Amino acid sequence: MKTAIVWFKTDLRLHDNETLIKAIAQSDQILPIYCFDDAHFETTPYGFKKTGSYRAQFLIESLKNLDENLRKIGSGLLILKGKPEVEIPKIVAEFKVHKVFAEREVAFEEKQTEKLVQTELFKLRCELETFSTSTLYHAEDLPFTKKDIPDVFTVFRKKTEQDASVRAVFAKASKIKSLSIPEMNLPTLKELGLTTSKMDSRAAIQFKGGETEAIKRLKHYFFETKSLSIYKETRNGMLGEDYSSKFSAWLALGCISPRTIYQEIKKYENENGANDSTYWLVFELLWRDFFRFMFKKHQTKFFLYSGIKTDIVNSKSLNKKFLSQWIKGATESDFINANMIELKKTGFMSNRGRQNVASYFCNELNMDWRIGASYFESQLVDYDVCSNWGNWAYLAGVGNDPRKNRYFNIEKQANDYDKDRTFRDLWLQ
């Protein structure tokens, strides 16, 4: 019998999952796995835990939900812990697996792990087949080759919208012939080297991981509240559950796919009418695509101080006092402080807040932007490698911003977006 492994990573869903569908079609029996990679729980060179407790908790919830959904159709999820290039080959050898199906990676460290796994599988005469499942537009459908993707978003967007189309979603798998999978055994936060962080009751939204919750959120934001129709007007808000879609955490772990969201936007437009707001959410999904394709093109450059520019020398050193004040929300700016306290106590911050605190870090505190990006990596519940590092490089002036220096006037921003101080009063009390 042909036995295949489906290696789940940041595609923790049954809907629109090409990897799973192709594995089922090409195999007699399936073994779904997830590996807690030790490297994801180490301390980075910048001194922060790579994965903090908010994101780890969200991941654990998402895996529980994936296991529940898989068991409903005859399977389950086997949990591994260690180095994927060590743990996955062990399972391949034990169950005589002929092929491993997985999501295709784009960022450097993830690509390195993928190559290590592939090398070890080759020794066992087992193939690794990967699929591009994380973007709205499929990489093969773009109107440019990888090396020719424009570095300016507007150029990329216009050409892509004009010459490419979004593929249809894959139907949800209805039945899986699976090996017998024992009850799921997840590591605790303590076993991952983390402490439990209870989300503050003031949080804009109480995130809960999993595909079931992702679909629930989409239905709420689109069809129950019709918030999508005013998204463009409200997206720069900072308070409450519905000023923005809040899909980012579920997108980051692939609990929902961009194409599923796109499909539902089209359905919503048919029922409620299309406007600038319904388009703007597609526009934001395109930004997400853009950063992923930039990482495919530029690879390690987004982790260098000079980013994708070549003429910038790192002249900034670490000021431990300033860094500590920024993290604790004890800077000279109450607007920055409120945002940083929200991040520390909830693992989330509005898009407007993120731009301001990053600009403040780079321009006012004058520190190496990668330290700030690394702190966000640890702290954010919705951390996505491409969006996080791409956006930080952008704001530091070493990424895809066509303008030389994007400087935010923090006081003006505070007056524009928190005129009556409601946001600051909430988090600084």
Automatic annotation (TrEMBL):
One of its GO terms (molecular function) is DNA binding. Its cofactor is (6R)-5,10-methylene-5,6,7,8-tetrahydrofolate; FAD. FAD binds at residues 231, 244-248, 284-291, 382-384. Belongs to the DNA photolyase class-1 family. Keywords: Chromophore, FAD, Flavoprotein, Lyase. Binds 1 5,10-methenyltetrahydrofolate (MTHF) per subunit. Binds 1 FAD per subunit. May have a photoreceptor function. PROSITE patterns: PHR_CRY_ALPHA_BETA. It comes from the Bacteria. GO terms for biological process: photoreactive repair. This is Cryptochrome DASH. Residues 2-136 form the Photolyase/cryptochrome alpha/beta domain. Pfam families: DNA_photolyase, FAD_binding_7.
